[in-house]
Each structure stands twice: as C-alpha cells, then as structure tokens.
Write a structure and sequence with these properties.
The complex is a heterodimer of chains A (about 260) and B (about 375). With about 260 residues, chain A is of the alpha/beta class. Chain A has 7 helices and 10 strands. Chain A is globular. Chain B has about 375 residues and is an alpha+beta fold. Chain B folds into 2 domains: about 170 residues, no CATH class; about 180 residues, no CATH class. In chain B, strands 2-3-8-5-7-6 form a 6-stranded mixed barrel. In chain B, α2 runs antiparallel to α8, α2 packs across α10 and α2 runs antiparallel to α11. The chains are: A alpha/beta (about 260), B alpha+beta (about 375).
Chain lengths: ~260, ~375
Amino acid sequence: MTTPHSNNTATIPPGNTRAAPQGNSVAVRCRNLTKTYGSGDAAVRALRGVDLDVQRGEMLMLVGPSGCGKTTLISVVAGVLDRDEGECAVLGQDLASLNSSQKAAFRAKNVGFVFQSFNLIPTLSIAENVAVPLLINRVPRKEAIARGAEILAKVGLGDRTKSLPTKLSGGQQQRVAIARALVHSPKLLVCDEPTSALDHKTGQKVMELLRGIAMGGDLSLIVVTHDQRIFEFADRIAEMDDGRIERVTTGQGHAIAAAAL
Amino acid sequence: MYRLAIKMLMGDRLKYFGLLAGMSFAAMMIAQQASIFVGLISQTGTFIRGLPYVDLWVMDEQVRFSEDQQPLPDTALPRVRGIEGVEWASPMFKGWLPARLPDGTRLNAIVVGIDDATLIGGPLAMHEGTLEDLRRDDAILIHYKEAGTKLKLEKAGGRTLRIGDRISLNDHDAFVAATFDSDPSFFWDPVIYTTYSRAVQFSPPQRNLMHYVLVKLKPGADLEEVRAHIERATPYKALTQDEFIALTRDFIAEKTGILINFGIAIGLGFFVGMLVTGQTFFNFTLDNLRYFAAIKAMGASSWMLIRMVMLQVLVAATLSLGIGLGIAALMGQQLKETDLAFLMPWQVPALTAASLLFISLLAGGLSLIKVLRLEPGVVFKG
C-alpha cells in the first residue's frame, strides 16, 4: 500500500484500503522517487516524488495517461533505470547500492519481464525463448530447455515448444512471454501493457493466466496498462498523473482469486 | 547463451547469407589480390629458380635484376674457374635480340646462351625433343606454351611456331630444334635458348657478351668462403639463388610500381570489405537491438553480451574466411592453366584471416558500443 508523503502521496479512498493479500511483507518500497530526463529547458520530470508499496503476492496495476511516468516507475522498480532521488528497496534490496553488474544479477534472479511487444527472439524456438532467463542464470542448456518446455505446458503451449514465435498468434506469443518471465521463479513480475497488442478475449485470457499465477505464492506483479477492461484483475490500482501517484483503489483481483480458490 | 547467439545469427537466413556474402567478398578480394601479387612477384624469379643446382651467380656488380644487361669480360670465366672451391663455372649469355618469325612478325626475344660443351644452364624440363638437340646447326629451343602465344604466327592464321620452323634472330637464321617447359615468367618477351657461342654470334658485335658465370662449388666447400674469395679476386659480385631472386624481386617491386598498385588494390579490398562487413554486421546488430535490450533487461551482464556479439562476429568471420579463401583458391586453380600469376602461400590466408579478423572485430566493436550503451529500459517503450 502507499504511504502518505508530502503532496505527492497517493490518496487512498476510505474503505478501499485493505491488507496485502499475502502476508504483510513488502516486496517493493519506494519513497519520494524522482527521475528527470534531460536538463535545462528540455528537462522532463518523469517522476516527482513517488511513494509506492507493493506487497508480496499482490497484483498492482499502474494506470494513467501516456507520459504520466508509469514506464519510468516500473523501469526504476525493475532495476533497469536509475532514479535521481528518493529510496527504492526491491525485495529488501536498495537498488542504488548496487553497481550495474550487481543490478543485472539481481534482475536475472528476482525479476521477470513481460513486454508490450513480447520481444520474443524470432529465430529461436519458443522453448529456447523461454529458457533465456535460465541461461542467463547459467542453468545448463538442456535443463533450461526442459524447464522451458515444462512451463510452456503450464500456459497451454506444451505441444508447440519447437515452434518459432512468428508461427503463433498474438495471445500465444504473450503466453510464451509470460512463461519466459516466470521460468526462473522470480519474486517480482513487471508487465508492460501485456494486453495492448491483443484483442479483448485474448487479453482476458492472458490476465486470467497472470491472475492465476499471482494467486499462489509470494510473487508480486506490477502491471502497467491503459486497458480498463482488465482493471478487475488487480488487487490494487494505482492511478498516476504527471509523475505522481494520485490515487490507489482496490480492485477485484483478490475476490477473483478467492473465488477461484 | 552462446548457442542461442549462434541461432540468432543464423536464424534469419536472408540476413545471415547477406552477412556471409559481404564478408566472404571481402576475404575473397583480399586473398585474390594478394595471391596475384605474390604470384607476379614470384614469377620475377622464375628464370633463376629454374637452375637450382647453381650455387653462385657471378655478375657485374651493377646488375640490378635478372634481365639487366651488364656483361662481363671473357676473362671473368677463367678467373672464377681458378678460385679454390669452385668445381665448375659456366658462361651464360642473356639478352634481348630482335627476332622475326616465319610469317614476318617482328618482336624482341630474351635469348639465353648456355655453355656449348656441357649445356649447363639449359631448361630443366623438355616438352618435345631433348636438350641435346641444341647441338644441331643453328638450333634454338622455345617454350612450348609461348610457341602458341607470344611466338604465334599471327599473319599465318595464328599457327603455333613448331619444331622445324626457322626464325631470324638479329638477322641470323635459327632453327627450332625442340621445345621446353618452365614456369611462367614475369617478363613479357619469349625466351629462346641456344648455345653460348651461337648467342654471341647472333648478338651485335660487342666487346663483352657474357652476362653471368654460373658456379658450382666442390663438395664440402664453404659457400661464404668461396663467395668472399670471388669478390676479393674479381670486381664482380656473387649471389646465391635466393639473394639473386630477392635482388630481382625488390628491383621490380620498386621500379615498376607493382607494389604500390597491388598495395592499393589489396587496401581497397580491405577497405571495401571493412565497409561491407561493418555495415552488414552493424545492420544485423541494429535489427536485433531490441532483443539484446530484452536480454539485458532480463539480467544479462555486459560481459555476456560482449561475448555473444563477439561469438557471432567470429563465427561469421570464420565461415566467411573459408568461403572467401575457397573462392579465391578456385579462381587460382582456374588460372593455373594460363600464364596469369596466382600463388597462395600460407602467408596469404594468414594475412586474409588477420584482415578479416580485424575488420570483424571492428564491426563487432562498433555494434557492441550500440548494444552496451543500450538502456535496458527501452524494452518498455514498445
């Protein structure tokens, strides 16, 4: 949940607050985060003092208009972009204290990514694509491919492991991307517009898949989206505008998860 | 990750073959031009190399290359023969004489006059007839390939000059008694062998007409001692085969501009190859930039990315080197039956490999700058 902090503090509407769905431990804790691109007259203040907590096992959706700072925020949280000021601890680790190699190693071990445009390598089979995070973590190739095939089976693509990404539909490609993001059992999953390239029905299926994943363990998900039709899957929804989190509301995700259980 | 890097490289067949084609072309250009240069330079020593049993070539101290006409006085021969350690010494005439073919075609020929008694200095391999045929009246030997090329009777329907034909050498009648074989020569005029006395007879009257004294050492004689002795006792210089070849090679390389011309051609091959390879590989990397960014975001270290890109570069370079050298060698094989120069000693593939490696590492390095400077955050930008 967010913590009040100066004028930029997210507003939590009364009655909408609730405890984290999976225990009390915090996966992501950001305080007064700032990030400015460029300098002088060309400076763009992408983050203007963001406070954000994401609980373990929680699915948080970041929503807001284009250019409001969503992508910058998840880039900082995922450790692919350095903040200017403020604090950001991910899984208890202050990312600012790590050098670039250590940050890469941290990401390799703890963070999974689902990209808007999938970013599946077109010349590799989908099992090989899924195995990439394991290979980065120096898992032997055969084992990595086998584990990739296993998780592909879990997302319903067990019979397509040798297919190239270009032979799959958009929804199938996104399922491969999700499998790739999860194969190394990360603690934090960062999804950037996971349904924007998909039709509504496929988008719903992809979100059901993600929701199901978030339901079980202590994996935390941050989902950046414009797609209001998938808000129902969130435990909480953080609305951003002009580099600030303006509001955090509770979604239906926990209820969906509970109903599924 | 390295197998995946290779699959990334080879997965897109069109781009991959485009990359290989560009790099192979660069390798082929460098290897081919270098081989032609080496072949040409090697041909400058063909005549000297054709007499491997000669230990020392004694000549005027001002001789600069094998066709240089700086004759010695007749006394040179007995003086050299008298030096301790010399088993035998043989005179040689070598000079250009005007020739007229049976059909009236006029040209210049390099006439080599060899010792009448021993025929030392004659061609090693005969094609038709024997060296002994030189003992016949007015006899000359011609190269069997040149008989149909440089000595072709253009005005008689392009007929090959053959045994039994008579030609005129400086207005002296000569009779083609046999044909010989030898490696192609750098020099463009046909080579005609005859005896020393006949060559002198063919030649315009001149005080000195002996161009070389060929020396064979006695068994056990020290070459340096004999050479020093010759150079002390006479005003001439004595060179080994390798030294004489080097003298000729260096003179031709310097005076004809062949070194500069081929240097430019090889340099152009290198430069074009660098551009083609650099651009092709750079484009390949640009095409894959978003995937490298994704891999980087997923936690790949810079070192891992460097190794991936360099592996791709080295695999492409190795395959291209093989293809380029193969094509160059095939072209050389095709040229073997012609007089065109082509020689590919191990230094040529080594030079090509080093050049391609340099080009590839440069291209890979430029691509890497792009990859390493890549903000992994770009993967979130769609």
